[in-house]
């Protein structure tokens, strides 16, 4: 695809830098490790890499608490290392997309420290508020937070700062103070962060937690931050995020204009760099709210991540249900916009755990043959599984903040962030440290690793790579989409383009082999080609369909 159109069908590989490849033996992944593995990514056929945050950070939230947006995390390397990564990527035809974290900085940032000190204009960079006076039953007066808001990672979203004598808002951990988007200074400062990296030649951004940018404006509520109503969610305690309905802290309408204004910044670079810059926004929200990120009839926006494969499909989903999930997005998406498919990320259980090992190939295939952008989270191409991380080894604040050494794992994102399993050597080839790796390597690495899968033609990796090769066909790049559930267990996806070989993907969710009657589909040109079928083994690849039916293997026993 051309430099202006590449993003419309980009296969983007999400790299979690801490866990991808450690080049200097300190047990933590780094930029030179990524550069070292670029030839592998090129050989796999991906178009771009998205790097989870690589900026300086004390790691209260694994790098999403940023000290300086224009710096490189020391344990990951230097700015020169980054520029080398960019150059090597470019020489291989791989574009680099960065993580842009606009909702909050880290609490070690200079902006925050100047804000604490009350220095203009930083004084208004964050969401500061006075505490409220309250009285205990015994008559003692005390101060309580400005509202009942709860952090995504449990407990009050307000933290008192002694020096400034006020509370600041943090929708995530205490070390992630929320920026104040009602300040024009913040709006401009963040646009300049985008420009800093665009000037270096990055190809766009994944935008973090964008639906948290704005909170209710006290000016509209008699000068106070309004309390959020109880959600009524079962099993949610008063410290849990799910305890409240987030009507004042999520998806406020002001958000969209900011996203559209970032699009304008990115578009400044189309002429100067001759390349379209992608923007993908992360917002877990209702479909109608996500769709608005695309833009309006007069303004362009971003590509909202489509998280429905993560949230709305499980181990028991039928072919009909999966079809519904696909069709829903395609129906709601405004015409002329680009879809996006996500089957995993660093915040969610692995596909192997969420949808089951039998469905790894099916999910990879769907994500790769549907129209639009697709994201592969590192390790999904080999079907990595959630690793075991003990309470003592736990890093994720979402788990630590439960203070519960027994049930913490229900909230932990560490299991899906364990180091990439390259081979069967020590630390799975991720690191040659003599100590320990930042998170333990999953103990199945001796058998589940890339090297073993490269050696096995029936592996997840070879299946993935074959579909990636097929993805480059005109039919998958541009063809029309048709989805059909022939039964509870057979899902058929076709991509047809007049004058080109069509592409057909069949998912068999049953454990036994089945034969499907293609004539019943009534859409088969004689040159339709099978991309892949079956689940996990015995794939019917590249068979030209001159016959009226094809056998579809069941998943591996
Ligand atoms: O996640 C945003 C977000 O909404 C998360 O709370 C998500 O719902 C949760 O992790 C699911 O378990 C983004 C990043 O992807 C995440 O890693 C960060 O922790 C978070 O923002 C704060 O920056
Ligand atoms: Ca916010």
UniProtKB/TrEMBL annotation:
Pfam families: Alpha-amylase. Belongs to the glycosyl hydrolase 13 family. The keyword Transmembrane does not apply. This is alpha-glucosidase. InterPro entries: GH, GH13_cat_dom, O16G_dom_2. Keywords: Glycoprotein, Glycosidase, Hydrolase, Signal. Residues 14-417 form the Glycosyl hydrolase family 13 catalytic domain. It catalyses: Hydrolysis of terminal, non-reducing (1->4)-linked alpha-D-glucose residues with release of alpha-D-glucose. Its EC number is 3.2.1.20. GO terms for molecular function: alpha-1,4-glucosidase activity. One of its GO terms (biological process) is carbohydrate metabolic process.
């Amino acid at each position: 695809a051309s430099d202006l159109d590449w993003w419309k069908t980009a296969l983007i590989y999400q790299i979690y830098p801490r866990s991808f490849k450690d080049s200097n033996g300190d047990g933590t992944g780094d930029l030179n490790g990524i550069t070292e593995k670029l030839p592998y990514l090129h050989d796999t056929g991906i178009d771009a890499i998205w790097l989870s945050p690589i900026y300086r950070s004390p790691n209260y939230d694994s790098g999403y608490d940023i000290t300086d947006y224009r710096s490189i995390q020391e344990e990951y390397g230097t700015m020169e290392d980054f520029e080398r990564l960019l150059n090597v990527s470019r020489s291989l035809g791989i574009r680099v997309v960065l993580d842009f974290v606009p909702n909050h900085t880290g609490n070690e940032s200079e902006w925050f420290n100047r804000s604490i000190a009350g220095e203009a204009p930083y004084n208004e960079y964050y969401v500061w508020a006075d505490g409220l006076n309250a009285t205990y039953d015994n008559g003692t007066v005390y101060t309580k937070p400005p509202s009942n808001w709860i952090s995504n990672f449990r407990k009050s979203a307000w933290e008192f700062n002694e020096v400034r004598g006020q509370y600041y808002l943090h929708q995530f951990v205490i070390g992630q103070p929320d920026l104040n988007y009602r300040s024009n200074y913040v709006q401009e400062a963040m646009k300049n962060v985008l420009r800093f990296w665009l000037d270096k030649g990055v190809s766009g951004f994944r935008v973090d937690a964008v639906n948290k940018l704005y909170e209710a404006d006290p000016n509209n509520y008699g000068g106070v931050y309004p309390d959020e109503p109880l959600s009524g969610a079962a099993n949610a305690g008063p410290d849990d995020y799910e305890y409240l309905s987030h009507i004042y802290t999520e998806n406020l309408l002001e958000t969209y204009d900011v996203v559209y204004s970032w699009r304008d910044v990115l578009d400044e670079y189309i002429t100067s760099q001759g390349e379209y810059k992608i923007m993908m926004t992360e917002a877990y929200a209702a479909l109608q709210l996500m769709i608005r990120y695309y833009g309006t009839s007069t303004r362009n926006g971003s590509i909202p991540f489509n998280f429905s494969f993560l949230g709305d499909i499980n181990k028991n989903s039928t072919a009909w249900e999966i079809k519904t999930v696909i069709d829903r997005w395609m129906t709601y998406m405004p015409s002329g916009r680009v879809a996006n498919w996500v089957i995993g990320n660093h915040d969610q259980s692995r596909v192997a755990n969420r949808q089951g090992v039998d469905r790894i190939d099916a999910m990879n295939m769907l994500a790769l043959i549907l129209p639009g952008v697709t994201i592969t989270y590192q390790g999904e191409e080999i079907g990595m599984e959630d690793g075991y991380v003990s309470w003592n080894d736990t890093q994720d604040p979402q788990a630590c903040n439960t203070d519960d050494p027994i049930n913490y794992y229900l909230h932990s994102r560490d299991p899906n962030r364990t180091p990439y399993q390259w081979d069967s050597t020590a630390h799975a080839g991720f690191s040659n440290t003599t100590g320990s790796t930042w998170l333990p390597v999953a103990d199945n690495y001796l058998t589940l690793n890339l090297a073993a899968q490269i050696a096995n033609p029936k592996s997840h990796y070879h299946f993935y790579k074959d579909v990636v090769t097929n993805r480059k066909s005109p039919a998958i790049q541009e063809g029309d989409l048709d989805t059909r559930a022939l039964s509870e267990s057979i899902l058929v996806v076709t991509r047809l383009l007049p004058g080109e070989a069509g592409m057909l993907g069949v998912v068999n969710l049953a454990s036994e082999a089945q034969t499907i009657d293609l004539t019943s589909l009534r859409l088969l040109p004689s040159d339709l080609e099978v991309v892949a079928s079956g689940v996990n083994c015995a794939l019917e690849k590249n068979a030209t369909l001159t016959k009226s039916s094809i056998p579809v293997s069941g998943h591996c026993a």
